[in-house]
Write a structure and sequence with these properties.
The protein has 180 residues and is mostly helical. It has 2 domains: 27-100, Serine Threonine Protein Phosphatase 5, Tetratricopeptide repeat (Alpha Horseshoe); 103-155, no CATH class. 73% of the residues lie in helices and 0% in strands. The protein contains 9 helices and no strands. Helix 2 packs antiparallel against helix 3. The longest helix has 19 residues, at 2-20. The chain is globular. The N and C termini lie far apart (57 Å).
């Protein structure tokens, strides 16, 4: 009950803060970023996303814009389950910040959401292929190769889990037979 009231009070407060700022009283980039983090900490993901969107709109090349786009991708996917908006956020990050340290993760997440959430396997393959072309030595390469190898398959169809179970079962039985 307290959590519900807290969320309502936070939403009303955020709405008041955002609406009371006229064009001449625009919130600073730092204020918007801080507010978004606070809202996310309070699990008010809807308002956090709106605040980050406003930050990117008002300060498209600002100090926090790149991080805001990355966080938007995470928020939309993990908390709001809007995978198309998550992908759009990562695509905006790629387009607006071509030298970002987050590019590899953005390309990976685009492929991941197309493959596992939206089920658009062709777009997933394209995103993963682009990842491999742009980042051939990145630490995520094995994950991308795994995703491509098993693209479109349900996790229950994967042999790797059954092989691991039988290997550990035979290892257990070997140790019970007096092996070292």
């Amino acid at each position: 009950m307290r959590v519900g009231i807290g969320v309502v009070v936070t939403a009303v407060l955020v709405g008041f803060i955002l609406s009371s700022c006229s064009k001449s009283e625009k919130m600073t980039e730092e204020q918007l970023f801080g507010l978004a983090r606070s809202l996310q900490d309070k699990e008010d993901y809807e308002q956090a996303a709106k605040t980050l969107e406003r930050l990117v709109k008002d300060y498209p090349k600002g100090r926090h814009a790149e991080e805001a786009l990355y966080r938007l991708g995470l928020l939309y996917a993990n908390n709001l389950h809007d995978y198309k908006k998550a992908i759009a956020s990562y695509q905006r990050l790629i387009e607006n910040f071509p030298n970002s340290n987050r590019l590899a993760q953005a390309y990976f997440m685009i492929g991941y959401h197309y493959a596992n959430d939206i089920k658009d396997l062709e777009r997933a393959r394209q995103a993963y292929t682009t990842f491999l072309e742009k980042f051939p030595n990145h630490e995520l390469v094995p994950s991308v190769q795994f995703e491509l190898k098993y693209l479109g398959k349900d996790i229950s169809e994967l042999d790797i889990f059954r092989e691991g179970e039988s290997s550990s079962a035979s290892a257990d039985s070997g140790s019970s037979r007096g092996g070292k």
